[in-house]
Amino acid sequence: MSFARSNQVHIYGWLLLMPAAIFLIAFTYYPTVATLAHSFFSDGTALRPSVFVGLENYKLMLEDEVFWKVARNNFWFALGTIPVSVALALLMAVWVNGRLPARGLVRMAYFTPTVLPMIAVANIWLFFYTPDIGLVDQVLGMFGAPGHNWLGDPDTVLGCLIVMTVWKESGFFMIFYLAALQSLPPELEEAAKLEGAGRWYFFRRVTFPLLMPTTLFVLINAVINSFKLVDHLFILTKGGPDNASNLLLYYIYEVAFSFFDEAYAATLTVVLLAVLAVIAIGQFVILDKRIHYR
């Protein structure tokens, strides 16, 4: 290949990459770097420009009691949604992958919550949790239980959000597990039956290890989703009562657009990105030896 031909191929390749690269730089890399830089400056105004303050915003964050409460809420929210939604998704995928009557209808029923708009889901569950007249209180009332303000009680509001999130996300994760199950060679199950292996033994020793790449992908998405809940909070609780349901991303939204403190919001955003990066890297390191690529 001549030198001119080689240059032409390289130019053609860069031209093909350019649209994706422009969007990636404009909407991912540049905002990340700009947010990191902004976290080291004060929040400027028209009369008082922003100045470099170093780690002052991070010191303010460490002294912020609301931040620590929100961080604890997010920890319990993630702990309540991630294992349950992933385990339920795997269970549903195994269930609908078998010889099940009306299998297509069951798959559609499991996946339907995923395609519903977030605002619509929040309004549906707002009706469920409405005191006295909501579906939850109506069902419990049949057994003599009194009505309860589920979203207005600090002891129950976070659990209500966890239940709603698991209901919405399990069907989404199920699709990935179902696709992975259908890609497994059927000869493996046939050989296991000839060897006399039971269904649980086959799942534990063969199926689940082969699903580990999918599990890693699902876990990373579940972690990210557990830190990005905003729409539902805006409709259901707005972080209340007394920040009992406030989560980190919604707190960032409040700081930036309600309190108009962009510098502190940038600081919180950097911390959120750092936490997600550490968790993602940790998942890769921990699960790397358990992943069997085919």
Q: Could you please describe the fold and organization of this structure?
A:
- The chain is an all-alpha fold.
- The chain has a single domain (57-290), classed as MetI-like (MetI-like fold), CATH 1.10.3720.
- Helix content is 72%, strand content 0%.
- It contains 13 helices and no strands.
- The chain has helices at 3-38, 56-62, 65-97, 103-115, 118-129, 135-141, 157-182, 186-194, 199-210, 212-226, 231-236, 248-257, 262-287.
- The longest helix is centred in the first third of the chain and has 36 residues, at 3-38.
- The protein is globular.
- 24% of the residues are buried.
- The mean pLDDT is 87.
Give the beta-strand count.
0
Q: H/E order of the elements?
A: HHHHHHHHHHHHH
| CATH architecture tag | Orthogonal Bundle
Low-confidence stretches: none
Give the number of domains: 1
Classified by CATH, the class is Mainly Alpha
Fourth-tier CATH superfamily name: MetI-like
Distance between the termini: 36 Å
Q: Could you tell me the radius of gyration in angstroms?
A: 24 Å
Note the overall shape: globular
Name the beta content range: under 5%
Largest sheet data: none
Q: Helix segment count?
A: 13
Please state the structural category: mainly alpha
- Average residue pLDDT: 87
* Share of helical residues: over 70%
- CATH topology (level 3) name: MetI-like fold
